[in-house]
Each structure stands twice: as C-alpha cells, then as structure tokens.
Amino acid sequence: KNKALLKELSQLGQNSNDLHFKTRRSQPFSVQCAACLWRQTLSLYRNPSYSAVRLLFIILIALILGDLYSGVGSKRSKEEDILDAVGSMFTAITFLGVQNVTTVQPLASFEMSFFYREKAAGLYSPFAYAFGQIVGELPYILLQTLIYSVIVYAMMGFEWKTEKFFWFFFFMLFALLYSTILGMLTVIVTPNEQVAGLTSSVVLTIWVLFSGFIIPKTRISVYWRWCYYATPYGWSLNGLAASQFGDVRTELDNQQTVEEFMRSYFGYSHGSVGYVAAINAAIALLFGACYGFAINIFNFQKR
C-alpha cells in the first residue's frame, strides 16, 4: 500500500511542473561575499590571540631590525652601506612573510571543517568564501604594515619623502598580503596542516634563494634566471630597493653613483618602479584567484 502511495504521489499532476530554481544559490554573489566577509571579520574579532601574536611579533621585529640596521638608510658612501640597506629589506620580507604564512595556517585549517560542510550544503560560492577570507585579513595586514613602516623607516633613517615612504609601505603591504594568501593556499591543496607547513617551507626556501639578494639577478645563470622572475620576493625586494635608492646620484667610493651601482649590481632601476608595483599587485590577485579555484576543486575531507 505504501509503495502504491509513493508511486501515486511521485506522478506530476496535469498543471504542475518539476521543482526548479533559476539560480544555483539562494542569494546573489554580492550577498554571498558580504555574508562571508562579515563572518570572517567576526571570527577574527573573536580570536584576539591570533591578531595579537602577529602585531606583537611585527613590533618586536621592527624594533630589532631598526636597532640592528640603525641609520643604514642615510649611509651612502660605500657599496657595503647600500648592501646593508637592501639586506634590511630582504630580512624584513623574509621574516615577516614567513611569520604570516605559519600563523595563518592553523586558523585556515580549523575553518576548513566548517567550509566543507557549508560548501556541500550549497550555501555560497567558494569564490565568495575566498573573498571573505582574504578581504577579512586586509585590515590586520594594513595595521601590520603601518606599524612596521613607521618604526623601521624612522630608525633606519630612510628619506622622509612622501613618494618614497608610500612605495615602502606599498611593497611591504603586498609582500605580507601574498604571503598570507600563500599560507591559506597551502592548507587548501594539502591533506593536513603538517603537510601544508612542509609545502610552504619548500616554497619559501625557493623564494628566498631566488629573491635576488643572496645571488643578484645579474649573477644568476641564464637558464636559472626564470626562477628569479617567478619569485614574488624578488619583485618586492626590487620595488623596495629601487624606490629608495634607484634615483640617488650620490657618488660611492668606487666612483659609481648609487643609481649606477643599483643598476649594475642588482639590475634595479628607479624607472621600473611603476611596473614592478603593478606586478606585485598582480601576484596578490593571482594568488587570490588560485585560492578561490583551489577551494572549489580540492577536498580532503574524510568521512
């Protein structure tokens, strides 16, 4: 009797149609992005230890580097002075980038369990989730960059010019931003947090090696030089160094100007700062897009 009733109820009536929805999601994409951003903002607000650790770390690193490299930004008499200044930028990108990668991974791994459930329920698009995760981090990354830039810029004695300070802030901001996205991305494409940590350490090691400081671009073998162009840290260091020293015509003890030394030794030019800035922004956008595609494709959930 029940089977007969089921058969009867499964038949469409004369004036009825199959259940159909015009869109896959119940809300438009803009509403999904707003909801995911609100949730991420609230999640970070309710997790003060996560933000406090990053802010305390960046204050500590800024004070230590500022003291170690005190006044290096105003010393322009020898090649070693310029190398020290560029070294301070390289150290900052490396330390702060690695710290952002390792700090965001545990939080991103924890939130994946909720994302898998909500993705299966079709609550929102994976790209809306990626938007919320990345944009929700922006205020904290902006604060990190501002704290570091003000402390270090003053202690290291770089030129207090609006343009130069802006470029310093800009390149540090995007270095921290794409490093944070890298931490999220490695969590998505790996089965667990331990593998994510190992993967990110390998990637960061390659970035540091081909950043253009340990081995300048002009001295990298031609068949390895593509690694330099594919390394985000190389573009950040290029922008930082070129914007600060690429237009300085002070003469060094080797009869070269600072501008000429930057071009001959590192291959940096002040005239290229604009397109280097565009490349840094493009790297962050590319990483964000890869993050969105990755969470749409990869699923390591175990039942």
UniProtKB/TrEMBL annotation:
Xref: InterPro entries: ABC2_TM
Keyword match Transcription regulation: no
One Pfam family in the UniProt entry: ABC2_membrane
Predominant cellular place of this UniProt entry's protein: membrane
Keywords: Membrane, Transmembrane, Transmembrane helix, Transport
Residues annotated as domain ABC-2 type transporter transmembrane: 32-245
PANTHER family on file: ATP-BINDING CASSETTE TRANSPORTER
Name of the protein: Pleiotropic drug resistance protein 1
Species this chain originates from: Genlisea aurea
